[in-house]
Each structure stands twice: as C-alpha cells, then as structure tokens.
Input
Amino acid sequence: MIEQSELILAKVKRARWKRNLRNDKFIDIELPVTRSFIGNGFVLHNSARRYERAREMELTYYFNRVGEHAARVFVNDIKVTGLIVGGPGPTKEDFLKGGYLHYQLQKNVLAVIDSSYVGREGVRELVEKAADTLQDVRLIEEKKLVQRFLTEVNKPGGLAIYGLPRVLDALQKAIADTVLISDDIETTKITMKCKNCGTTKESVVQNQSKMQATQEMISTPCEKCRSTDYEIHEKDIVDVLEETAFQVGAKVEVISSGTEEGNMFRSFGGVAAFLRYRPQ
Output
C-alpha cells in the first residue's frame, strides 16, 4: 500500500528489460510526465536523485561481491603474484579507488588497462595489451630464482643441485621441489627397446649429435639376445623433466637465456633443481 504519495496513471511508451548486477531486472521506460506514477503495473518515480542512489547501491553491492570473490579465489585458494585490471569505461578505477579489493591483492595490481570489449574478447585484448608488463614480471621472478639458486649452490649443505643426471636422479627419488630449465637447452632422450627380448637402453644426447648417437646405439647388439632390431623413441629432455616432475609433485620453471641471470644459469648446464631436503 502506498500512502501520502501523489500518483497518476500513465501509459508506458517504451519498456525494455535489462539484467542488473544482481540478476534482477531493470526497466527502461520513456514517459512524458514529471511526477510519480503507476504504469502498467509497475510503481515508478521520476526522481533522478533517487535513481542515482539506487544505482550507487547496486554498484556498491556488485563491487563488494567482486571483491569477496576475488579474495576467496586469489587469496585463499590460489596465491597470485600480480593482477591485471581492465575493461571499458571508468568502472575499474572506481572499483580500485573504492577499496573493494582485498589489501593483499590491491598491492599486487600490476596495471590498469582500458579495453574496447568485454567478455572473452575483452580478456584476450587485455592479455595482448599487458604482454610487456607480464614479461617484465616474469623476468623479475626468473631473476629471483637464479639468485636463490646461486646462493644455495654456493653454501655448505645448500638445497640446490645442477646437472641433468643429478636432477633426474633427484626427481626419481622424489626429493626435488622445483626444477629450473634454460629455454635454449637442446637435448634429447633416446630410448631403444629390443623387439626380440624387450630389453631397453637409453641415452641422453645433444640434438646436434643425435643422428650419430642413434646410429651407434642401433649398431650395438642387445646385451641380452644380441639382436639389433629395435623400437626407437625420442623425447625432448624438457618434456622428460616436466613429466617426471608432475609425477612427484615438483614444479618446473623455465629460465630465459637472453638475460644476464639466464646466461649465468646457463653456465651451470641449463638444468638445476631445488631440493625438498638434503639426502643423508
């Protein structure tokens, strides 16, 4: 019941349904009147001020929901090191200035970027525009990893090892926590299985000498049955390390070779690992 309100009857000239931020519905209505009215079953008011207050309440409600969801996902569930905030219009700036984002995430905002689109196209546009920023962040992370590696490898009892055989052994023993790989490492693992008795033999070689190494392995008879009929399988060593690391719950980090830290890391062979603990 509406009491003490001046109401008139009016015909709705144009009505359009829209989704608002809480999944209710807004209605856009054009009416040549200047007072409150009831139109086609809807109670409305022509006060621009009241509309603005309602809009602000809806935005505040939405911003709070976004902030709570971001905190739940990016603080509680997944630890993030940086955020890119973007979209068309000034809404993103209002969201950040309003303090709706969790303080731990607020300090990790790397860039605020304007986009022309929303949805998937908008996300794709943001990724493209943020490429330089993301690259800079990645290089900083790589620098920290290499500096940590150099510190650990040079101190007694440090939790870092280097060299492909030692890293593979650490992965097989499940004591490797993080594997570091240079992005320009060119090494292949060759596996040959005897078709006659099933005996296998393996060799890890540089790509430039892969053909020669393969021929030598083929020409060497099987140790068990002396056959030279083999099934041959080749796999890039990066894939080998990634698959083995996944099996034991270890992480893999690729280090760019085009930086000063990357060159320093490459001098250690381009493959290293941080250990969970130092074996006795």
About this structure: The radius of gyration is 31 Å. The chain has three domains: 9-46, 60-129, 144-275. The longest helix spans residues 48-77.
